[in-house]
Design goal:
This protein has nine helices and eight strands. It has helices at 2-7, 19-31, 40-43, 78-88, 102-109, 128-131, 134-144, 147-157, 182-199; strands spanning 11-14, 52-57, 66-71, 121-124, 161-164, 167-171, 208-211, 214-217. Helix 4 (78-88) crosses helix 8 (147-157). 25% of the residues are buried.
């Protein structure tokens, strides 16, 4: 985990715990937002705690690399992120390529026959969550929602910090796996990204399905 935190390029070591500073920033953003000011008491954590990170080993991959998870429950942005995830969720799954889960994808494959020379291929994004460009993701959310919502999402995405073995770190790239809004933001960004890619492709695939960052095509 220390190797990941110090050498992946996605985190910055901090000299002290930023809990109080981030809590004040989050509370001020919520209270000054026209979008959620009336329910600010429901979105501001009364006694926020310092977040912690842990790793889940990917035992199906060589070397069992860790999947970093930031436990955001009771953190400064948790209630806000949970609220935003519910608001953004209806915007996910509006493309033809969207696959809700692996079983639904298998059902769609049952009626498809491969012609000579065709093959089914799959690919995925390496470390999707920590690779999502925050500015571009916020631009997409602003385009599909409004500026107030995008600003609140940005506050959450740029306020990820945590402790590990007594030291404090800030996430400087991507979104944190463990935040309620991260899966929704990842899906919205990927839908926009793939729409641009497919619209500019000279040769379209016969089939293109995506489950978050796992793509399947013929």
């Amino acid at each position: 985990m220390l190797d990941h935190l110090c050498n992946s390029g996605s985190y910055k070591k901090l000299s002290k715990n930023p809990l109080k500073k981030i809590s004040r920033t989050v509370a001020l953003a919520i209270k000054s937002s026209n979008y959620v000011a009336c329910i600010s008491h429901k979105l501001i954590e009364s006694s926020p705690i310092t977040l912690r990170i842990y790793g889940l080993p990917k035992i199906h991959k060589e070397g069992a690399p860790l999947r970093p998870i930031v436990n955001t429950i009771s953190g400064p942005t948790y209630l806000q992120a949970k609220f935003l995830a519910l608001k953004l969720k209806p915007l996910v799954g509006l493309t033809e390529s969207f696959a809700k889960d692996p079983l639904s994808f298998v059902e769609e494959l049952k009626g498809i026959k491969l012609d000579p020379g065709e093959m089914l291929v799959s690919c995925d994004v390496v470390s999707l969550y920590t690779c999502i460009p925050i500015k571009e993701a916020i631009d997409v959310i602003n385009r599909v929602t409004n500026l107030d919502t995008a600003c609140l999402v940005e506050i959450c995405l740029t306020s990820t910090f945590f402790s590990f073995e007594g030291e404090f770190f800030e996430q400087t790239c991507g979104v944190a796996m463990g935040s309620p809004q991260s899966p929704v933001v990842a899906n919205i960004f990927m839908e926009d990204f793939e729409s641009k890619a497919l619209s500019s492709a000279q040769l379209l695939p016969k089939l293109w399905k995506r489950l978050v960052d796992d793509m399947n095509a013929i």
